[in-house]
Each structure stands twice: as structure tokens, then as C-alpha cells.
Design goal:
The protein is mainly alpha-helical. 63% of the residues lie in helices and 7% in strands. The mean pLDDT is 89.
């Protein structure tokens, strides 16, 4: 027997999944799936859109991730490899490999730290700034397309609700931007 609060006709794949579970396991409250299955499916669509956006710019998603961390660091767009690996949650070997590959493409360069002669900074080149800015523009266009069914108030509401769900995992309190 179907629960009264579920539609009798499926309108998206998650509705079909929910209906099937309600039929097979009416003893369970499957309502959390209504949210999390949609979030997971949207994440997959976003991942595909990201790959398309970066591919259009001749870039891999991991390249954008590294370059965007540097770009957000403000001029002169330099960080230590250690800071990069903390931001990107990758191993030091992976980070070294990524920096090497980006350096070969002329997107970053390694320079000695002016504060510590033993330390190295990874710095965006002018080409790196241009490429990450172009990729960001392409990404934002595709993300806007994904959000097109929502008006501005709905987007703000969705963002606030998702933030509430994400905060326990992130472990950082919301601080006002200055």
C-alpha cells in the first residue's frame, strides 16, 4: 500500500525509486531518500557539467581545482605546496605530480619563498590566470543553466537549507563575510 504523502505518478527518477520502496518496504520511512537521492543525482549532473565546462577550456577538473585555489589566494597567486594539499585534500605525492604537470603546461611556476629559503611557492603564471578565469566563466554559465528552474528566492532558500545540512560535516561555524 502506498503512503498517502507520495505521488501516485512518478515525476522524476527519485519519485519512481520512492514508490518502489514504498511498495516493497511499506514498514520503512524512506522520506530521507527524497532529499539525499536528489542531492546525489544533482551532484552527478553537476560533475558532468563541470567536466564539460573544463573540457571546453582544455582543462581537467583537477587542474581547475589547483588553479582556482591559487587564484583565490589573491595577487601574486602564490601558495606553498603544503597549503595546496591541505586545501585539496590530496597526498603530497599527488600534489607534487599535479604541480609538475601544471608547470610543464606553463600554468604555474615554482619560486623560492622570500620568507624562508628552504620553502617553495607555487605561483600562477599569466597563462594560468587566463585559463582558470576562462574555465570559471564557463563553469558558472553551466551551473546557472542547472539552476534555471529556480528563481532567486528559491536559490537562496535552497542554498541556506543545504548549508544547514553541510555544516555538521564541515565542522566550521558560519562566519559573516567582511
Amino acid at each position: 500500500m502506498l503512503a498517502e504523502n507520495y505521488p501516485t505518478e512518478a515525476t522524476d527518477e527519485v519519485d519512481r525509486i520512492i514508490l518502489a520502496w514504498q511498495i516493497e518496504r511499506p514498514d520503512l520511512d524512506v522520506s530521507p531518500m527524497e532529499v539525499y537521492s536528489r542531492v546525489a543525482r544533482l551532484a552527478r549532473h553537476l560533475d558532468l557539467a563541470r567536466k564539460e565546462a573544463f573540457s571546453a577550456q582544455g582543462m581537467e577538473p583537477w587542474e581547475f581545482d589547483v588553479l582556482s585555489v591559487l587564484r583565490r589566494a589573491a595577487s601574486p597567486y602564490s601558495l606553498t605546496p603544503g597549503t595546496l594539499l591541505q586545501e585539496l585534500l590530496v597526498s603530497s605525492g599527488t600534489m607534487t605530480n599535479r604541480i609538475d604537470r601544471l608547470e610543464k603546461k606553463g600554468l604555474v611556476k615554482r619560486t623560492p619563498s622570500p620568507h624562508d629559503r628552504r620553502a617553495v611557492l607555487v605561483t600562477l603564471t599569466d597563462l594560468g590566470v587566463t585559463r582558470v578565469d576562462s574555465a570559471l566563466k564557463e563553469l558558472l554559465m553551466r551551473e546557472s543553466e542547472l539552476l534555471a528552474p529556480l528563481d532567486e528566492d528559491e536559490r537562496k532558500t535552497l542554498s541556506a537549507l543545504l548549508r544547514q545540512l553541510l555544516l555538521p560535516f564541515e565542522g566550521t561555524p558560519v562566519r559573516p563575510l567582511r
